[in-house]
Amino acid sequence: MAATRLVAPNEGWFADPAFHLATRGIFGTTILATTGTWLEGVDRHTYWILPLYPLALAPLFRSFGFSLYTMRALSVFWDLIALSAFYFLMLSQAGRRIALLATLLLAVDFHFLVGGGTGRMDMMCAALGYSALAAYMMLRERSLRAAILASSTLAVAGCLTHPCGILAVCGLVFLAFRFDRERLNWSSLALAMAPCAVGLAAYGAYALQDWPSYLRQLTGNVSGVAGEATGSTRFDGLAHPLIALHRELLDRYMSAFNGDSWRNPYRTQLLILSLYWGAAIVALIDRRIRSQKAARLLVPLAGIYFVIMWLLEGLKLRVYMVHTLPLFAGLGALWIWNWTEGRRFVRASVIAAILGIQLLGIGFGVWINQYHNEHLPVAAYMKEHGHPGSLIMASGQFAFDFGYDGRLIDDVRLGYFTGKKPEFFVRDVWYGEWLDLAKTRDPEVYKHVNTTLAAAYREVFRNPGFVIYQLR
Fold it and tell me: Which residues fall within 8 angstroms of residue 272, CB to CB, at 6 or more apart?
């Protein structure tokens, strides 16, 4: 998947500060056109994302060179850490075989593998979060103090990687009160807060280097660049919880597991979603399963994670499913194990069918190979037909082809604020969604882009994912 999946625009964005830290010693993001936007100042200080992911990526770029595969290798590493942590979390409350089955279901989950094959911070955050939960459960009986310190440190690291790290923090609070309420005291709280104080002090020192820019970028990212293309903000769910619940179920899950037609083999993923949701329902209504230790761990954690994502993540991005899928996989394993008890052939058949469905989806994704069949031909065309050093405006995904030397600018507004006219303007799905919303949100920008393209550019290349316009 890391070798064939289409590059996301934000992979180029998130690689940017890591590249500059590794090569120039600055933590700036230079590829984004920020004039007139809430991202002004990001070329000097990257505040709109949390720092730990690019900090972890920078030494890899310095040691192995800047490339898409180097970046995605970090996600593959964190995928393995997440799987290991989830196994130990399950092992703490279930038998070894159920823990292995749950980890197997997660290891072949199509969407979890997407997280492991994409250059984003989500898998790192999930791995740190589940490592925090596993560390607490595995250490608490041997040494509660060690459990608190280790789990808190990992949870804080997750929070400094992505805001979804708060999921593990809430999960840890639940575990502490669920299993050790009588053993907790004020010294336990102080021990838990110590890593938080260290992390906040380091992060605060960086934020104070340019406080106005920090506030502008942080508040701007409440809706974020993704919000500009979706028309949503991250906290829409608090104001409209029923609408948010509908979008949580349909936009995040159903749309992710649903193919575009019944002829698409990927649509069999709906059976996996049925397994996950069915297992959650069965764990709630079946007293025999509900009374088991593993269910008493997974059901509340799944509820906590689901509610937080429902109410506090209004963009409904699919990439955040890496945080909830392990819990659904654990519930699925519990359901399969109990339902097939004493029927080994049925159990083996069910597991084989699930593996077949997942491998079918994975195989289909690898077969269409969007990276080589859609992305690389676009980059090759511009390299072949462009002038040396000519300006390109395209989404950040092309940073891995043209670098960060100023030749490539991610400016969906086509120089509306800067007056620049590139030789090439590349419209992809991301640019298309942003400009569609700009019809009503920024009509002047929308008019400028379409008028400029019609008057000064001609279409020279098209494939299913991209359209290239070249200056006449």
Answer: 109, 110, 257, 354, 357, 358
Q: Where are the alpha helices (DSSP H) in 160-185?
A: 166-180
**First-residue to last-residue Cα distance in the chain:** 38
Q: pLDDT, tens digit, for every residue of 96-132? A: 999 999 999 999 999 999 999 999 999 999 999 999 9
Q: Which domain, by its residues, includes 344?
A: 67-368
Structure tokens at 101: 């089955």
> What are the structure tokens assigned to 296, written together?
């008493």
Mean pLDDT of the chain: 94
Query: Is residue 145 one of the residues assigned to a domain?
Result: yes
State how far Cα 385 lies from the chain centre.
35
- Provide the token pair at 337: 């194990």
Strand (E) or helix (H) holding 461: strand 457-463
List, in sequence order, every beta strand (DSSP E) within 61-103: none
The answer to whether residues 348 and 463 belong to one domain is no
Domain boundary residue, one of 368, 389, 418: 368
Structurally, how many domains does the chain consist of?
Answer: 2
The residue-averaged pLDDT of 222-229 equals: 72
Q: What's the rounded Cα separation, in Å, for the pair 131 and 135?
A: 6
Q: Which of 331, 347, 368 is the last residue of a domain?
A: 368
* pLDDT-based confidence at residue 236 (cuts at 50, 70, 90): confident
The per-residue b/e assignment along 328-354, b for 16 or more CB within 10 angstroms, e otherwise, is: bbbbbbbbbbbebeeeeeebeebbeeb
* Residue-wise pLDDT tens digits, 335-365: 999 999 999 999 999 999 999 999 998 998 8
Q: What is residue 260's predicted lDDT score, i.e. its pLDDT?
A: 57
Cα separation, 110 vs 33, whole angstroms: 34
Kindly state the average pLDDT of the residues 446-465: 96
